Write a sequence for this structure.
C-alpha cells in the first residue's frame, strides 16, 4: 500500500513539474515552491496552489490571478482525482488540452480571462460530475459545442467574450440543473432557442451584446418561474415582448435595451411583483405606458427612453415609493407632468426630455429632496420655474432648455452640488440673477436664446469650477464684459455672441489660461484687441467679427500656437497685417475682411501650411499677390476682393489643388489669366471682375468641371469665348460683360441658359442671346486645296441632308398611317432622348398610381413618387381627372416652358405621357424634402452662410424663369418654402443646400 501511495505521489509530482515547464513567465514567483528535489512533494503543504485529500492525492489546483504566461500542459490529466482546476486571470495561450476530459471527478473548471484559442474540446462532455464551467474572456472560436447538453450536473456555464461562430445550441435546454447561463459578447447569431424555456432551475440568463442574434423573444421563457435576471440587450431582436413574461414571478432584472422590439409593453408585466430594474430603451415600443406597470412597488429603475411611447404619463407614477430612476425621454408622451410627482420621495434621476409635454412644472417637484438630475428639456412646458427647486440641495444637473417657460429666472438658493444648469431657448423675462455666483460647484451655464436683458453679473467671476458659459443670442443683454470673468482659470468655452455688449474686451481675459473657445461676435464691442490675449495659450477658436474693434492686430497673438480659427471680419482694425501671422502653424481659418488694413499680404503666409480659408476682402491692401501662397496646398477658400492688389496673378496659385472659391474682384490686377488655372479642377467659383486683365480667356478653364460661377467682367480681355467652355455642365452663373471679346457666343449646354447680360459691353461678340448676328467671313482668303475640301464637304452635307429629309418624311408618313389604324391612343414624347416610358411602365413605376406613393396634391394635379425599372427614382405629375379646354391650355403651356428649361437650380423634365384620358409629366425626383422642412422642421442648424447660399440658389432659379425663359412672361406668384425642394451636395468650404 505504501508503494502505491508513493507511486501516485511521484506521478502527480511529475505531472505538475511538466505543467511548470510549460509556463514561460512567472513574474510573481508563484511556482518557485514547486521543487524538483527528492524530498519535495505536492502534498507536503509547501506547493503554492495545490491542495490534497487525506490520503495524499491532489484534488485542487488553484493558480488564479498569477500573471502566468505559457501553455496548459496535457500532463494535468494525470491528476486523476482532481476536483477543482482554476487557472483563471492569467496570460495562458494555445488550445485547451482535450486530455482534460479524462479528469472524471472534476466538478469545477475555470480557465477564464486568458488568451486561449481554438475550439472547445468535445471531450469535455465526459466530465459528468462537472457543475461549474467558466471559459469566458478568451479568444476561443468555432461553434458553441452541443456537448454541454450531456452534462447532467452542470449548474454554471459561462462562455462570454469569445469569438464563437454559429448559433446558441438548442441542446442547452437539456441541462436541467443549469442555473446560470452567460453567453454575452461572443459573436453568436441565429435565434434564441425556445428550448431554454425547459430550464426550470434557471436563475440568470445573459445573451446580450450578440448583434447577430435576431428573431423574437421566445414566449417559452415565461415558464422560468425561478428566473431572477434576464439580459437580452444590444442584440437584433424584433417583434413584441411576450405577454408570458408576466409569469416570471421571481424576475428582478430585465434588460432588453438596444434592440428593434416593437408593439406595446404588456400589461401583464404588472404581475412581476419582484421586478426592480426594467430597461427597454433604444427600441421601437409604442402605445401607452401601462398603469399596471407603474404601480410595481419594488421597481427602482424604469428606463424607457428613445422609443415611440405616447399618451399621458400615468398619474399612478406618484405611487411608486421605491422608484429612484425614471427615464422616459425621446418618446411621444403628451399632456402634463403628474401633479403628484412629489410623492416619489426616493427619486434621484428624472429625465423626460424630447417629448410633447405641456402645462406647468409641478411645484411639489421641490419636495423630491434626493433628486440629482432633472431633465425636462425639448418639450412645450409653460409657466415659471418653480421656486421650490431651490430647496433641492442634492441637485447636480438641471436642464429645462427648449421649452416655453416664462417669468424670471428664480434665485437659485442653496444648491451646493449643482454642476450643470441649462435653461436656454425659453421665453424668460428679466436679467441674469447675480446669485448664480453662489453656485460654487457650477461647471456649465447655458442661458442662450432666452430673451434675457440687463447686464452680465460680475458675480459669475466667483465660479472657480466653471468650464463653459453660453449667454449668447440674448439681444437684451447689454453693458460691458465683466473683467471678473478673467478669474475663471478653468473656463474652456465662453460664448457671448449676438448680444448688445459694448465697451472694450477686458485685459483680464488674458488670464483665462484654460480657455479654448471665445465667441463674442455680433455685438458693439469697441477698442482694441488686448495684447494680453496672447497669453491664452490653449485658445483654439477666436471669433470677434461684426463688432467695432479698432487698432492694430496684436503681434502677441502669434504666441497662440494652438489657434485654428481667427475670425475678425467687419470691424475697424487697421495698419498692416502683422507678418508674424505667418508663424501660426495650426491656423486653418483666417477672416480679416471688411476692415481697414493697409500694406500688403505678408510674404510668409505660405508658411501657414494648414490654412484652408483665407479672406481679406474689403480692406486697403495693395502690392502684388504673394507667390508663396502657392504653398497652401490645403487652401479651399481665397478671397482678396475689393482691395488694391496689383501686378499679375501668380502662376504658383495653380499648386493650390484643393481650392474651390477664388475671388479677386475689384482690384488693380493686370496681365493675362494664367493658363495653369485649369489645373485647379476643384474650383466652384471664380470672380476676377473689375480688374485690368488682358489677353484671352484660357481654354484650360474647360478642365474645371466643377465650376458653377465664372465672373470675368469689367476687364480688358480679348479674343473669342472658347467653345470648350460648353463642357462646364455645372456652370449656372456667367458674366463676361464689359471686355473686348469678339466672335460668336457658344450655344450648347449651359450657355443656352445665359441672358444677354452675361455678354453686354463686348462690341465684337455676336449671336444669341445678343441681337447682333454673326456675319460670314467673306473676305477671308482660302487656299486652293482648302477650297476643294470645302466644296466636297458642302456637297456631301447637301446630299446627306436631302437623304435625311426623305427618310424622315417616309417615317412620319408610315407613323401617322399606323396610328390611324391603331386603337392605341397613348403616344409617348421624350425630351433629349432621356427616358422612354410606356403606359404599362408608368403604372408599374407608381404601383398603379397608389395613394401610398403620393408626394403632394394641388388644384390641378397630383404628384407621385415612382421607380422606373426598379432603379430610377422619378416624380410623376398626373393631371387631375376631367377634361377641359382650359386644363389643356395650362398643361401645354407648362410643357412648353419645361421643355425649354436647362438650369441647375430647376427641376428637370425627363419626359411626358399624353393621351385623351391621361396626361403626365415625368420629372427629376429630388430626395431631400422641401425648404420648409430644412428651415423650420428639421433640426439641421443651418448657419447664416448656408442660408445665404440657399437664397442665392433660389434666386438664380427664379431669375432664370422670370427673365430668360419665355421672354420674361413667366410669373411666380406665390413663392413659399414648401415649394422648393432640396438637393445636398458637398461643394465649397461647407455643405451647401441647392434649392431647385
Amino acid at each position: 500500500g505504501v508503494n502505491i501511495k508513493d507511486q501516485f505521489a511521484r506521478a502527480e509530482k511529475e505531472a505538475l513539474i511538466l505543467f511548470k515547464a510549460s509556463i514561460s513567465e512567472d513574474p510573481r514567483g508563484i511556482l518557485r515552491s514547486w521543487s524538483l528535489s527528492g524530498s519535495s512533494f505536492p502534498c507536503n503543504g509547501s506547493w503554492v496552489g495545490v491542495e490534497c485529500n487525506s490520503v495524499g492525492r491532489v484534488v485542487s489546483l488553484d493558480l488564479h490571478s498569477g500573471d502566468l504566461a505559457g501553455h496548459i500542459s496535457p500532463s494535468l490529466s494525470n491528476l486523476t482525482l482532481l476536483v477543482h482546476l482554476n487557472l483563471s486571470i492569467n496570460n495562458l495561450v494555445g488550445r485547451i488540452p482535450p486530455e482534460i476530459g479524462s479528469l472524471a471527478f472534476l466538478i469545477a473548471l475555470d480557465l477564464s480571462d486568458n488568451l486561449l484559442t481554438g475550439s472547445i474540446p468535445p471531450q469535455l462532455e465526459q466530465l459528468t460530475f462537472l457543475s461549474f464551467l467558466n471559459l469566458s474572456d478568451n479568444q476561443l472560436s468555432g461553434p458553441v459545442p452541443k456537448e454541454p447538453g450531456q452534462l447532467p450536473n452542470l449548474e454554471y456555464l459561462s462562455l462570454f467574450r469569445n469569438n464563437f461562430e454559429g448559433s446558441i445550441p438548442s441542446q442547452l435546454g437539456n441541462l436541467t440543473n443549469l442555473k446560470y447561463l452567460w453567453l454575452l459578447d461572443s459573436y453568436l447569431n441565429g435565434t434564441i432557442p425556445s428550448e431554454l424555456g425547459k430550464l426550470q432551475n434557471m436563475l440568470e440568463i445573459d445573451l446580450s451584446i450578440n448583434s447577430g442574434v435576431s428573431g423574437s423573444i421566445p414566449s417559452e421563457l415565461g415558464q422560468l418561474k425561478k428566473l431572477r435576471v434576464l439580459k437580452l440587450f444590444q442584440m437584433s431582436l424584433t417583434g413584441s415582448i411576450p405577454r408570458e413574461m408576466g409569469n416570471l414571478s421571481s424576475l428582478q432584472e430585465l434588460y432588453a435595451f438596444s434592440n428593434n422590439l416593437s408593439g406595446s409593453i404588456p400589461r401583464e408585466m404588472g404581475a412581476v411583483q419582484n421586478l426592480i430594474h426594467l430597461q427597454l430603451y433604444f427600441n421601437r415600443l409604442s402605445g401607452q405606458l401601462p398603469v399596471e406597470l407603474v404601480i410595481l412597488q419594488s421597481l427602482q429603475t424604469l428606463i424607457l427612453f428613445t422609443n415611440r411611447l405616447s399618451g399621458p404619463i400615468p398619474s399612478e407614477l406618484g405611487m411608486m415609493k421605491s422608484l429612484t430612476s425614471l427615464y422616459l425621454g425621446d418618446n411621444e408622451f403628451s399632456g402634463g407632468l403628474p401633479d403628484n410627482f412629489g410623492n416619489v420621495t426616493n427619486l434621484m434621476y428624472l429625465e423626460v426630455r424630447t417629448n410633447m409635454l405641456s402645462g406647468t412644472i409641478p411645484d411639489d417637484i421641490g419636495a423630491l429632496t434626493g433628486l440629482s438630475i432633472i431633465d425636462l428639456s425639448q418639450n412645450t412646458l409653460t409657466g415659471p420655474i418653480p421656486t421650490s427647486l431651490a430647496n433641492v440641495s442634492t441637485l447636480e444637473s438641471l436642464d429645462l432648455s427648449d421649452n416655453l417657460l416664462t417669468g424670471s429666472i428664480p434665485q437659485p438658493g442653496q444648491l451646493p452640488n449643482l454642476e450643470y444648469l441649462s435653461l436656454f431657448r425659453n421665453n424668460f423675462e428679466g436679467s441674469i440673477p447675480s446669485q448664480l455666483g453662489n453656485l460654487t460647484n457650477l461647471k456649465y451655464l447655458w442661458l442662450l436664446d432666452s430673451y434675457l436683458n440687463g447686464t452680465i453679473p460680475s458675480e459669475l467671476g466667483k465660479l472657480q469650477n466653471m468650464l463653459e458659459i453660453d449667454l449668447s443670442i440674448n439681444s437684451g443683454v447689454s453693458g460691458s464684459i465683466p473683467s471678473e470673468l478673467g478669474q475663471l482659470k478653468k473656463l474652456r468655452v465662453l460664448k457671448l455672441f449676438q448680444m448688445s455688449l459694448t465697451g472694450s474686451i477686458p485685459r483680464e481675459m488674458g488670464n483665462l489660461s484654460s480657455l479654448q473657445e471665445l465667441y463674442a461676435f455680433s455685438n458693439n464691442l469697441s477698442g482694441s484687441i488686448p495684447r494680453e490675449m496672447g497669453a491664452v495659450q490653449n485658445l483654439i477658436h477666436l471669433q470677434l467679427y461684426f463688432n467695432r474693434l479698432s487698432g492694430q492686430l496684436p503681434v502677441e497673438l502669434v504666441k497662440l500656437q494652438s489657434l485654428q480659427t481667427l475670425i475678425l471680419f467687419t470691424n475697424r482694425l487697421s495698419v498692416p497685417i502683422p507678418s508674424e501671422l505667418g508663424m501660426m502653424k495650426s491656423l486653418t481659418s483666417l477672416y480679416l475682411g471688411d476692415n481697414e488694413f493697409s500694406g500688403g499680404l505678408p510674404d510668409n503666409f505660405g508658411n501657414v501650411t494648414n490654412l484652408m480659408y483665407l479672406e481679406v476682402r474689403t480692406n486697403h491692401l495693395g502690392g502684388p499677390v504673394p507667390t508663396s501662397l502657392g504653398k497652401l496646398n490645403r487652401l479651399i477658400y481665397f478671397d482678396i476682393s475689393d482691395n488694391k492688389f496689383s501686378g499679375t496673378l501668380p502662376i504658383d496659385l495653380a499648386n493650390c489643388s484643393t481650392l474651390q472659391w477664388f475671388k479677386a474682384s475689384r482690384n488693380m490686377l493686370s496681365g493675362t489669366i494664367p493658363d495653369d488655372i485649369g489645373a485647379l479642377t476643384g474650383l466652384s467659383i471664380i470672380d476676377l471682375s473689375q480688374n485690368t486683365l488682358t489677353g484671352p480667356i484660357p481654354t484650360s478653364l474647360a478642365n474645371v468641371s466643377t465650376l458653377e460661377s465664372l465672373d470675368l467682367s469689367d476687364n480688358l480681355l480679348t479674343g473669342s469665348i472658347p467653345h470648350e467652355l460648353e463642357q462646364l455642365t455645372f456652370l449656372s452663373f456667367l458674366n463676361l460683360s464689359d471686355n473686348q471679346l469678339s466672335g460668336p457666343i457658344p450655344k450648347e449646354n449651359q450657355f443656352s441658359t445665359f441672358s444677354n447680360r452675361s455678354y453686354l459691353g463686348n462690341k465684337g461678340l455676336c449671336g444669341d442671346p445678343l441681337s447682333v448676328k454673326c456675319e460670314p467671313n467673306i473676305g477671308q482668303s482660302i487656299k486652293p486645296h482648302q477650297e476643294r475640301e470645302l466644296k466636297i464637304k458642302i456637297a456631301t452635307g447637301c446630299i446627306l441632308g436631302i437623304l435625311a429629309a426623305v427618310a424622315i418624311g417616309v417615317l412620319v408618313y408610315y407613323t401617322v398611317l399606323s396610328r390611324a389604324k391603331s386603337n392605341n391612343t397613348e403616344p409617348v414624347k421624350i425630351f433629349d432622348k432621356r427616358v422612354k416610358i410606356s403606359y404599362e411602365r408608368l403604372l408599374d413605376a407608381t404601383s398603379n398610381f397608389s395613394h401610398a406613393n403620393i408626394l403632394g396634391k394641388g388644384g390641378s394635379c397630383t404628384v407621385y413618387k415612382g421607380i422606373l425599372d426598379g432603379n430610377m427614382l422619378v416624380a410623376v405629375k398626373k393631371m387631375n381627372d376631367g377634361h377641359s379646354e382650359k386644363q389643356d391650355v395650362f398643361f401645354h403651356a407648362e410643357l412648353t416652358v419645361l421643355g425649354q428649361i436647362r438650369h441647375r437650380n430647376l427641376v428637370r423634365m425627363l419626359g411626358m405621357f399624353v393621351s385623351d384620358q391621361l396626361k403626365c409629366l415625368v420629372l427629376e425626383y429630388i430626395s431631400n424634402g422641401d425648404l420648409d422642412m430644412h428651415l423650420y422642421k428639421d433640426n439641421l442648424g443651418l448657419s447664416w452662410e448656408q442660408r445665404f447660399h440657399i437664397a442665392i440658389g433660389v434666386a438664380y432659379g427664379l431669375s432664370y424663369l422670370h427673365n430668360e425663359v419665355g421672354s420674361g412672361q413667366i410669373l411666380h406668384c406665390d413663392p413659399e418654402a414648401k415649394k422648393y425642394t432640396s438637393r445636398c451636395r458637398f461643394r465649397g468650404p461647407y455643405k451647401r443646400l441647392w434649392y431647385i
Remarks:
- The two ends are 99 Å apart (CA to CA).
- The chain has six helices and 64 strands.
